[in-house]
Amino acid sequence: MKIEIITTPNEKLKETGFGSLQACQSVLDAIDKLGHQVKLNVCSNLQDLELIVNRQPDLVILAVKYISIDNGIDVWLSEYFAEHEINYSGSSREVLKFDSDKVLAKQHLMKKGIRTADFFTAIPGQYKNEADLPVAFPLFLKPLDAANGNGIDDQSLVTNFAEFETKTLSLYTTFNQPVLAEEYLQGREFSAALIKTEDSKLIVSAVEIIAPQSSRGLRILGQKVKQEDSEEIRKIDDLKILNEVTRLAMAAFTRLGIWDFGRIDIKTNNHGQCYFMEANLVPGMTAGSSYFPRACELANELSYDEVIQLIVEKGISRAPYAEPRTLPPVMTGNTTDKRAAHM
Fold first, then answer.
1. pLDDT digits (tens, 9 = 90+) for 272-327
2. How far apart are CA 38 and CA 29, in angstroms?
3. CA proximity to 109, closest of 254, 262, 270
């Protein structure tokens, strides 16, 4: 099969997808081991995309959601390749909007009966005093669509109106969009990596994420923590919590209409109840550090190469001429098929 990976110079993007060029190279290396013809493309304009269409690959792996071209227009890759009848990995443009707009995802899932933290959006000066705020303090403020902890730090937790105004102004100035203000949940943080197999079963790999304690005594997964990889990713040993996190992650994945794979972030309140926080549908794929492959390794003993194989299998299964099971089964060191671990 001919497979091409699509990324873009991502220094100016708020959402960096799989990650650096090195992360994309790791994906290429894993696909190459499967025996496919594979090529990595760093695209910055429509001409780059046209060359890929002309080569008619069997599958394109989308390492970013969009590319920004010179005239300021974002070209959404899933939409572009769908229009050109090229098979692509991940989810459709319609589904990816739930990744790019946290409020839209929360509103959608609330209507489907899935619990999420109370929230509202704000711009500087919109609210005149504490009594005007739709949700009571403490609140957690973050950008509407930025990933990788961008804009999130100790000051994201606000407990009074002065702090709220200061952080709202800072985020609005930096990201030029309304700020998402959420009810602050004081419990534990979890992340679940989900992969749909070619026979449409879900492999769910849920882990706990523990940020280091800051000088303010807070554990916040902000930009600095993620850049330094100073958080701990831990297997969930409590079966009750694992089942609750897994159930919520599967429900969110299904009701958002996610196609192939995605990461669902979940947090608990101080009573241990699970709440949907956000969906990442083009998750980081840096070997050894990104939550998605690390969760698969810790929860289901899937190696990095096996994670990429599962993603490729699902994508290839949509090719009109693909034969079922064209790839070898995912094997472990003791020759058991770890796909039996799906939930």
1. 999 999 999 999 999 999 999 999 999 999 999 999 999 999 999 988 765 444 44
2. 9
3. 254
Query: How far is Cα 217 from Cα 227, in angstroms, rounded to an integer?
Result: 20
DSSP string, 38-67: EEEEE--SHHHHHHHHHH--SEEEESSSEE
Residue ranges matching CATH 3.30.1490 in the chain: 118-183
Q: At what angle do helices 239-255 and 102-111 cross, to 10 degrees?
A: 100
**Chain segment 180-205, per-residue pLDDT in tens:** 999 999 999 999 999 999 999 999 99
Measured CA to CA in angstroms, residue 14 lies from 165, 187, 211 at distances of: 23, 27, 22
Q: Outline which parts of the chain fall under CATH 3.40.50.
A: 2-92
Q: How confident is the model at residue 61 (pLDDT cuts 50, 70, 90)?
A: very high
What is the distance between the alpha carbons of residues 220 and 155, in angstroms, rounded to a whole number? 10
Q: How far apart are CA 187 and CA 189, in angstroms?
A: 7
∠ CA(281), CA(94), CA(30), 5° rounding? 35
The pLDDT tens digits of the residues spanning 203-233 come to 999 999 999 998 788 898 877 888 888 999 9
Beta bridge partners of 181: 120, 141
State the fold for domain 2-92. Rossmann fold (3.40.50)
Q: Which CATH class is domain 118-183?
A: alpha beta
Cα angle 203, 255, 310; round to 5: 25
Helix (H, G, I), strand (E, B) or coil at 120: strand
